[in-house]
Amino acid sequence: MNNCKALTVDKGQDGVRLDIWLARQLREISRSRIQQLIRAGLVTINMRPVKESHKIKPGERIEINIPSPRAVELKAEKIPLSILFEDEALIVIDKPAGLVVHPAPGHNSGTLVNAILYHCPRLGGIGGELRPGIVHRLDRETSGVMVVAKTEKAMMSLTGQFKQREIHKEYLAVVWGVLAPPSGVIETLIGRHAIDRKKMTAMPKKGRLSITRYETISTFGNFSLVRLCPATGRTHQIRVHLAHLQHPVIGDKQYGRRSVCELPVEIGRQMLHAHKISFRHPETGEKMEFSAPVPEDMTHLLDYLRSVKQQK
Questions:
Q1: Same domain for 90 and 154?
Q2: Backbone angles phi, psi at 172, to 5 degrees
Q3: Are 45 and 92 within one domain?
Q4: Catalytic residue of the set 139, 196, 297, 303
Q5: How far is CA 36 from CA 30, 49, 75, 149, 308, in A?
Q6: Domain limits at 10?
Q7: The model's pTM
Q8: φ and ψ of 100, to 5 deg
Q9: Last residue of a domain, which of 148, 163, 178?
Q10: What is the per-residue pLDDT across 81-131, written as a single tens digit (0 to 9) for each?
Q11: Among this protein's residues, is 87 annotated catalytic?
């Protein structure tokens, strides 16, 4: 069933582009979605279709016909989820290592999105589709806390908070070596690697500013437990920055040392964990913070490193 809205332009609002004006009036719909509706002829002024660049005039009656969200081709799959919080606007999940976030070539199923489609059969719709809003990602082999939008309004709010750097994220990583100084800020450009296009690099010819704050929590001989807070959200940012400092994440086959023979414990993935996230709730504005417990494989490694340190 379609949702129809009718608005009238008041005095003093003339001269504003139609798409901009509608985005201000309909806070629950993104400007890009409004532009899609206009181009599809679903927005009329005085019963006539118009362009998004139309300059509004006082007294004009604007009608918006919003179709019900359409089903996506992705399959809902019964995949277990560790849910930290959920309401009508969003869901906060503790993602396990090994779970891909979004379907892509080679991973059309078995992803977090497939799992959420099964868990949340009544999504509010984002961009005209019944799908969850992925506002940030974790690499497949990175574990930890993620927030996912269930409505377009929540998606817009969380995306805006990320852009304004209002969302705080904290990661834990076990790395090679001891960082000097033990705390500080890593600030580089990050861009696509010139030869290996699947990798990123902190020394590109062209790149985007990337900032990560770090603090050493503990050291264990030739290893360290580090807390990291990215101020920006570039692809593979933390892994690239730590490798740039010559202290790559243990188990990181892409940016680190391929051999972990110095460690008798099994390392099945990169020892990077998204530990905490804080943000404003899209509906209430309330400050919210969630943390995901350190997973068993990382805890096992840290226990081993502590035991070796105590024996020396």
A1: yes
A2: -120, 135
A3: no
A4: 139
A5: 10, 13, 25, 21, 60
A6: 3-66
A7: 0.82
A8: -75, 140
A9: 163
A10: 999 999 999 999 999 999 999 887 767 789 999 999 999 887 777 766 657
A11: no
